[in-house]
Amino acid sequence: MGSSKIISNREIFFLVLMIQQSGLFWLLPYFLVRGNGTAGLGAVLAGILAAICIILIGRYWGRHMPNMGFVTALRQRHAEIGTITGLLFCLWYLLFAVLILYSFVDAAQKQLLPDTPRIVLCAVIALLTGWMSKGGLEALARLNMLCIGSIVLMMTVSIAGTADLFHPEYALPIQIQNTAQMQEAAVHSVFCYSSLLSVFMLYPASADKQTMHKWVLAAVGIGALSLIVWTAYALSVLGQYSLQAVLWIPIHLVRMVEIGALIDQTESLFMVLWMAIVMTIGSMFLWCASEGVHQLVKKQANPYLHWGIALLVFLGMTAIENTMVFLRVEAILAKVMLLFLPVMLGLIAVLAMKRRKRE
């Protein structure tokens, strides 16, 4: 906390790739197919465009402020507005950590632990992510490399176990039937890809800032392709109309897999692997929030500050009463990302350029 260790662009590539496997991205197919079936996959393009814009903006900040943290750079460009914007970004990272971790808590309680009080699950998750993120970005990057195999394993098991149910004709016809749902899917797609705002905090830690954007773009491309292929496969197995009623499509698909007597319930194995992914990504966003706050208050590795932010994550998870509240919070944050944060960043850049001209 309070400082960024150097990590390779390869590690950043896998971090960005793993971000696209968080609970929010696994919830996205529900919004994509609802009302429009296969045609709804086109809404992913809105998120990809948002991701490209974020990467280009991040590259600008990374090139102009290569040797300092993102929040520190904001404050240097404009003290008052930069401080407010930095605080908003820290809040954004905090809320993203809350939503990612809550998505797992919600699914785990409904699928595996219906009798366990939600507050207990939230407390355990918050403590674990607080402890993991305290090790810093370098430790998270190494842990993330170990989790990549779990993604490949889950996708392989899901596809191999349901291959006999695959019928491409189930994904037809490809036709937009509900434009309002298409627009909502686009908003949710933008929100999911706005998780790449974490790239702003990763830039100072990159060992090669000049080529980092290429690695991030490659990770976004591979992640988007896997999302589209995964959802199209689920449509071809379950059918367009059946899939529209399924909230957690990956869990539903894994439930259909039968490994045999060795593993009676495949979703249990799935949830364990998913927990490793969610904990890593949730910890990374908690690290982003903590690192940003450390830069705001100009502190170095303050444990009270870090665990205070972990406490806020716990309180945020317990404040979300149910899935409907979760979805409403997500929709509000998507609109904030679309309207407010780009305006604030643009304003800081314009004011900084005016100040340079006066000098």
Walkthrough of the structure:
- With 359 residues, the chain is mostly helical.
- The chain has 15 helices and no strands.
- It has helices at 9-19, 23-33, 44-64, 70-77, 79-111, 118-134, 137-161, 179-193, 199-202, 212-238, 240-243, 249-255, 266-297, 303-319, 323-358.
- Helix 3 (44-64) packs parallel to helix 8, helix 4 packs parallel to helix 13 (266-297) and helix 5 runs antiparallel to helix 13.
- The longest helix has 36 residues, at 323-358.
- The radius of gyration is 20 Å and the shape is globular.
- The mean pLDDT is 80.
Overview in brief:
It is built from 15 helices and no strands.
Write the layout of secondary structure elements.
Elements: H1 9-19, H2 23-33, H3 44-64, H4 70-77, H5 79-111, H6 118-134, H7 137-161, H8 179-193, H9 199-202, H10 212-238, H11 240-243, H12 249-255, H13 266-297, H14 303-319, H15 323-358
Helix pairs in contact: 1-7, 1-10, 2-8, 3-8, 3-10, 4-5, 4-13, 5-6, 5-13, 5-14, 5-15, 6-13, 6-14, 7-13, 8-15, 12-13, 13-14
Which key terms come to mind for this protein?
359 residues; mainly alpha; globular
Task: Give Rg in angstroms.
Answer: 20 Å
The rough form would be described as globular
Largest sheet: none
> Strand fraction band?
under 5%
Structural class: mainly alpha
Low-confidence sequence ranges:
none
Would you list the SSEs in sequence order as H and E?
A: HHHHHHHHHHHHHHH
Number of helices: 15
End-to-end separation: 35 Å
Residue-averaged pLDDT, rounded? 80
Work out the number of β strands.
Answer: 0
Q: How much helix is in the residues?
A: over 70%
